[in-house]
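Practice problem 4.
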């Protein structure tokens, strides 16, 4: 059997292993997906880590 015959794994069949620790987000984090950790928290993005840390966006000089 050719290694390309089966194709890539279907991302829709990946198992949900965790939910984003940012409670306002709550996105599913799937097996094999890139994620961000902060302490014991697992987040779907750096933006969600910033929210957990209490950071927020401002306009400089205002």
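Answer key:
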């Amino acid at each position: 059997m050719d290694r390309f015959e089966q194709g890539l794994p279907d991302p829709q069949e990946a198992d949900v292993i965790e939910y984003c620790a940012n409670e306002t987000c709550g996105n599913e984090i799937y097996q094999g997906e890139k994620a961000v950790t902060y302490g014991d928290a697992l987040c779907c993005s750096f933006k969600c880590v910033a929210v957990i840390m209490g950071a927020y966006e401002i306009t400089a000089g205002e």
